[in-house]
Amino acid sequence: MTSICSLSHTAPRAASMDQENNSEDDSVGPSGDGMPCLPPDLSDGEAMELLWQLRAQRRQSSPELPETVSCLTAPDGSILYLVGTAHFSDSSKKDVATTIRAVQPDVVVVELCQYRVSMLKMDENTLLKEAKDINLDKVQQAIKQNGLMSGLMQILLLKVSAHITEQLGMAPGGEFREAFKEAGRVPFCKFHLGDRPIPVTFKRAIAALSLWQKARLAWGLCFLSDPISKEDVEKCKQKDLLEQTMSEMIGEFPALHKTIVAERDIYLTHTLRQATRCVESPPNAQKVPAVVVGVVGMGHVPGIERNWDKQLNINEIMSVAPPSRVGWVLCAVIKGVMMGMLGYACYRAGGSLGRALLSLPPVRSLLETLRPLPA
Question: pTM to 2 decimals?
Answer without folding.
Answer: 0.72
